[in-house]
Each structure stands twice: as structure tokens, then as C-alpha cells.
Specification:
- 61% of the residues lie in helices and 1% in strands.
- It contains 14 helices and two strands; from the N terminus they run H-H-H-H-H-H-H-H-H-H-H-E-E-H-H-H.
- It has a two-stranded antiparallel sheet.
- The longest helix is centred in the C-terminal third of the chain and has 34 residues, at 379-412.
């Protein structure tokens, strides 16, 4: 919950600064948040504050509750090494465009495999500190470098460039086991990296899916072939800095506008999530759930181009709950969401052991996403649930394998 508090504080500060800018200099059409509804800023701020307050309350109410544990300890150095090799191979396959699509297995499996790269950095960085092992340090550095290169050449979200380094730092400081290390020189590298990131933030917007061009002159040929679709954005609305981009008051004012215009949606905005609960192997042609695209179209900030929305805007979790269910729903929904986070976090048993591979991946995923307020909208609940189920299946399979192995050993004796 600590990084969640941190993420909310950052967004709230960003909202304050952006509203101050709007009232002092106004909002121009060149702004990335040109669609803000200034008449609804006060109510939108209240939605944000009340929603997050009840999420915190929900977490505290259920902080001792847990879903079934998914912790699996792996102390075999050979297994830990093999997992590292698998992550490297898997990442390189994606980097060079030879990855095999696993969508038919469901979003949960895809999510778990995607966690291996970024959260695996945290796992090995933590082991490096706990065991004072140069081998695990090397593993963590290699994975961090690979994930950063992968983000430079293929990611669309700018924050993906920072995530590997943040994961590395998180694993290191968690391994240290004390918050006092955050106030030493050890934090300087990550602070320096964030400063560099903020300097390039705006230019990065013009080279989405090929961020490397923001740091170097465009090459005559792509060293990684033509397997990636390079997205060059020339949209004049991409003018916001890193702090402004962290604000969400604009989305919330539009949520309030929709409620004023149409009334509360009584669950209609969240109804597509029901379809997301159906596994893809049972529904191969299941459409992709895109709540952000729907919201952008609903508020008039997107148009249909070649059959698809050309923009996607998050509602925020408090915003979506309020849009659908009003103030009472926002209070109840916030408590339930906070309780869900508590149950999922406790299921990881993250702090129990640095050798807890599944718990480290699951807990690390929760920690990293908490900094961003957990999710852009309630669609994150489906992502969390599907990934948790996959980890739970892994735990059950591992437990059964260990039980059978011990049973065979006893019979042999």
C-alpha cells in the first residue's frame, strides 16, 4: 500500500499543478489535455479524493485477509539459473520478432510470461543483495539491460523505459531490508535516471514504438529488422511534461460531465468486463475489451479511423466506479477494491522469503503497478484475477509434484 500512497500523492500533486496552470494561463488546443471540462474540476477532485480514501479504508479493513497462497520457494541454483536463461531467450525472441503468440491460452498466461522479464529483475536483484552474489547481480543487470533495449525498440508507453531500472532498485532495497537505505547515496543512480527521463519525455512522444530515435539520430536501417511497426506521432496535443502527464483531473472532469448529461450508467460502462471473464480458449473470437477507447469516444476525444478508435483515455478506478454507481457505489466499490488488493498482496507472501519465485513475481507486479494507482480503470481487476489464477495453478501443480516425490521416497525407504 505504500507505493499506492506514493502514486496517489504524485497524481494529486500533478492535478494541483495542472489546475493551477489552467487557471493562470488557460488551456490551449495544443495541450495534451485540451478536452478538460473546467466547470467540473471541483466535483472531479472530490471523486478522486473520496474514491482513494475508501480504497485505503478497504485495505485497512481487510489487511489480515488473504486469498489462497501462491508462494513457491525455489532454492535450487540450477533451477534459478535455468529460469534466467528462459527469460533471456524469451525476451530475445520478442526483441527480434520471433515470439510465439500465446493469446489462445488466455490473458493470464500472457500476463505471467510478460512479468518474467521486468519483475524477474527485482527477483534476481533481491537475491543478489541477500546472498551477496555477483552471479545474481549479473543476472539482474543483464535482464535490466535487455528489458530497457526492448522498451527502446518496441514499447509504446514511455514509462516502460523506466520500469526495468525501478524494478532493479526495488529488488535491491527490498533485499537490504531497511527503509533507511533509501536515504543514502544508493538512491542517486535512480534519481539521475529519472532526471534524464524527464528531459527526453516530450521528444519520446514523437517516436512511440521506437523510442531509440529520441536519443540517437535516425539510422538508415533498423538493426532489428522490419518486424516492428514504428509509430511517429506528430499530434500537436503531445506537449505535456512528465508531471502533467501524471495528472488525471481531465479524465475525471469528463466523467462528471457524462454523469451530468446522461446520469449514472448503472453498470453499463463496466458491463464489457463480464465478457473478459470468459477464457479465450472457450471463446476464440472474443473481442478485445477496450474501455479506454469507449470512454474517449463517449466524451468526444476520439474518432473512428479504419474501424478503430484513434485514442484511448483512462477513466481511473474511482472515476469508473462513480460513473457507473454514484457516490454510494464509490464508497462501497472503493472498500471492495482495497480489500481485493489486500487479499492478493497477502497471497504472495512476498516478504516471507527471497526464494519465493511466484510470490516475488506476483508481489513485484503489484508493487510496480501500485505506483501508477494500480490501473487505468476496472479492467485491471480482470488482469489481476487472471494472473492470480495462473499462479495458483502453478502452486497446485508444484505442491502435487512435491507430494508425489516425497511419497515415492517414503515408499522406497
Amino acid at each position: 500500500m505504500t507505493p499506492f500512497y506514493g502514486g496517489v500523492i504524485i497524481s494529486t500533486l500533478a492535478n494541483f499543478l495542472f489546475v493551477l496552470k489552467v487557471h493562470t494561463t488557460g488551456i490551449s488546443e495544443s495541450s495534451m489535455y485540451w478536452y478538460i471540462e473546467t466547470a467540473h474540476i471541483d466535483e472531479a477532485t472530490l471523486v478522486w479524493c473520496v474514491g482513494n480514501a475508501f480504497i485505503f479504508i478497504g485495505y485497512e479493513v481487510f489487511h489480515t485477509r488473504s486469498f489462497p497462497s501462491i508462494a513457491v520457494e525455489i532454492k535450487s541454483k540450477k533451477v534459478v539459473k535455468n529460469i534466467f536463461i528462459f527469460i533471456v531467450v524469451f525476451t530475445l525472441m520478442h526483441l527480434f520478432g520471433y515470439a510465439i503468440s500465446l493469446r489462445f491460452l488466455g490473458g493470464g498466461v500472457e500476463k505471467v510470461l510478460s512479468l518474467l522479464g521486468v519483475v524477474g529483475i527485482m527477483f534476481y536483484a533481491r537475491l543478489w543483495v541477500v546472498e551477496d552474489s555477483k552471479t545474481y547481480r549479473t543476472y539482474a543487470l543483464i535482464l535490466c539491460a535487455l528489458q530497457t533495449v526492448f522498451a527502446l525498440y518496441s514499447s509504446f508507453l514511455r514509462v516502460d523505459l523506466l520500469t526495468p531500472a525501478v524494478s532493479m532498485a526495488a529488488g535491491y532495497f527490498i533485499g537490504k531490508g531497511s527503509i533507511r537505505y533509501l536515504f543514502t547515496y544508493r538512491l542517486l543512480p535512480i534519481i539521475g535516471l529519472m532526471l534524464v527521463f524527464s528531459m527526453f519525455f516530450q521528444s519520446l512522444a514523437g517516436n512511440r514504438a521506437h523510442f531509440i530515435d529520441s536519443f540517437t539520430a535516425p539510422a538508415s536501417s533498423d538493426p532489428f529488422g522490419s518486424s516492428y511497426n514504428v509509430v511517429r506521432t506528430t499530434d500537436k496535443q503531445e506537449t505535456g511534461g512528465a508531471m502533467e502527464r501524471s495528472s488525471n483531473i481531465t479524465q475525471l472532469t469528463n466523467v462528471v460531465k457524462l454523469v451530468k448529461r446522461n446520469g449514472h450508467y448503472d453498470g453499463r460502462a463496466s458491463a464489457p468486463l463480464i465478457a473478459a471473464l470468459i477464457p479465450r480458449f472457450l471463446w476464440p473470437d472474443k473481442p478485445i475489451i477496450q474501455l479506454g477507447a469507449w470512454f474517449a469516444l463517449e466524451i468526444g476525444a476520439a474518432t473512428i479511423v479504419e474501424g478503430r478508435a484513434n485514442n484511448s483515455i483512462n477513466m481511473t478506478i474511482p472515476g469508473q466506479i462513480y460513473l457507473d454507481f454514484g457516490w454510494i457505489g464509490l464508497c462501497v466499490g472503493g472498500i471492495l477494491f482495497g480489500g481485493l488488493l489486500a487479499g492478493y498482496w497477502n497471497a504472495s507472501k512476498f516478504m516471507s522469503s527471497p526464494y519465493n519465485l511466484t510470490g516475488s513475481l506476483w508481489g513485484g507486479y503489484l508493487l510496480l503497478y501500485a505506483l501508477g494507482g494500480i490501473g487505468a480503470d476496472l479492467q485491471i481487476v480482470i488482469s489481476l484475477t487472471s494472473a492470480y489464477i495462473v499462479f495458483l495453478v502453478i502452486k497446485k501443480i508444484t505442491y502435487r509434484h512435491e507430494t508425489n516425490r516425497l511419497g515415492a521416497a517414503v515408499e522406497g525407504q
